[in-house]
Design a protein that fits this description.
Structural class: alpha+beta
Bound molecules: zinc ion
Number of strands: 5
Strand content: 25-35%
């Protein structure tokens, strides 16, 4: 799903402002899960236990709240092979570490070096 996949006309209104699921117009009950528009990124990555240059793969980041969930998850996935889902408290903790740790912040800075 991309940012251009807005709910279809006639879809029921959803309680989640970020949700793009066309509720009431889907075919399968599992399709009624709340999903945000995915943000696609081509990222070079590798398994942390591996060596080598890694591989550039299409990743997608978005929000997902399945029908049975009582919380929303941030999903980071590369196709069916790799996926990670973090609830909001874990996603916030990760974001805080990336913002607040001086070494990580410096390393991630646009004008930072790779040292
Ligand atoms: Zn929804």
């Amino acid at each position: 799903m991309s940012r251009n996949d807005l709910p279809a006309p006639g879809a029921m209104r959803c309680a989640f402002a970020w949700c793009t699921t066309p509720h009431g117009l889907t075919v399968h009950p599992a399709d009624e899960d709340h999903r945000s528009a995915g943000i696609a990124l081509a990222l070079r990555a590798r398994d942390a236990r591996a060596g080598g240059p890694g591989e550039t793969t299409e990743w997608e980041v978005g929000l997902l709240r399945r029908s049975g969930d009582d919380e929303t998850w941030m999903v980071i996935e590369a196709g069916r092979a790799l996926s990670l889902a973090l609830p909001v408290d874990a996603a916030r903790a990760l974001g805080k570490v990336l913002r607040d740790d001086p070494d990580l912040r410096a390393w991630l800075a646009v004008d930072g070096s790779d040292r």
